[in-house]
Design a protein that fits this description.
Elements lengths: L2 E5 L1 H10 L6 H10 L4 E4 L10 H7 L6 E6 L12 H8 L3 E4 L19 H13 L3 E6 L3 H9 L4 E5 L1 H12 L3 H20 L3 E5 L7 H7 L5 E4 L1 H10 L1 H11 L2
Parallel strand pairs: 1-2, 1-8, 2-3, 3-4, 4-5, 5-6, 6-7, 7-8
Helix pairs in contact: 6-8, 7-8, 10-11
Length: 252
């Protein structure tokens, strides 16, 4: 079964645009779970432009499904006391996903080079695993990067799916079935490498109602997809309950 984890960063972006606590990200997480989300994902960044480190603390006692905290382990909030590693160790979520975000980046735009950064990643992965936290490493769909994640001790990889989403959209516009197959091929190959190396498999970035079913049909053994921007955008039209239902249906 592939689990749907809802990334609630965009809800915090809307709240922060006006100050105050509307919408309430903690209540929104509760509602997502009630409507069928099987996990909640947050990605606090040092500038706290959407999810704040304090939000992560407030969500800890609330999330009853899987809690996934994404981010760069080198990150440090603009307001102490927390760095990313300290925050995650204090929360002990189900999963931490290591993402090599450059400071100030608009959104995640690349996976880890697990070969060049093997020493650092090995230390960080071991530190989190000592706390009983499942560790996933965000990687591009390349066999050597997946293999590198296995060598540093990760439990899972999360495939960075922006390239798939862009190519699939172009293929749909052209009504080109061959191009669809080419869009997914490197992800299928990377997913098989993960399986061969004993790694669990997650996926995320630009997955949507347009492209999720096809992705899942080709890689049915994916453990979890983490979706935020497209899902929250769809909810503006459909409502969050119906949106979650439709995304869950794509994973059947």
């Amino acid at each position: 079964m592939t689990r749907l984890s809802v990334n609630i960063n965009k809800v915090a972006t809307l709240r922060n645009a006006r100050g105050g606590n509307m919408p309430d990200v903690v209540q929104f997480a509760r509602d997502c779970e009630c409507f069928g989300a099987q996990g909640i994902t947050v990605h606090p960044r040092p500038d706290e432009r959407h999810i704040r480190y304090s939000d992560v603390v407030a969500l800890k006692p609330v999330v009853g499904t899987e809690f996934n905290i994404e981010g760069n382990p080198r990150g440090r909030a603009s307001h102490p006391p927390y760095g990313f590693i300290d925050l995650v160790k204090s929360i002990v979520p189900t999963q931490v996903t290591l993402v090599p975000d450059a400071e100030g980046a608009l959104t995640s735009n690349a996976g880890w080079d697990t070969v060049s950064h093997a020493g650092y990643l090995r230390e960080v992965v071991a530190e989190f695993k000592k706390c009983g936290i499942r560790v996933s490493v965000f990687v591009d769909a390349e066999a050597r990067m997946v293999e590198g994640a296995a060598r540093v001790g990760a439990d899972r990889v999360e495939l960075y799916t922006e390239r798939y989403a862009s190519a699939y959209h172009a293929a749909c516009l052209a009504a080109d079935e061959t191009a669809k197959a080419m869009a997914i091929r490197p992800f299928v190959e990377a997913a098989k490498v993960a399986q061969q190396n004993g790694l669990g498999l997650n996926a995320g970035h630009d997955l949507s109602l347009e492209n999720l079913s096809y992705f899942h049909q080709q890689i049915a053994w994916v453990d979890e997809v983490s979706i935020g921007h497209a899902l929250i955008s769809d909810a503006l039209y459909l409502g969050i309950e119906e949106t979650i239902r439709r995304y869950r249906a794509c994973l059947q």
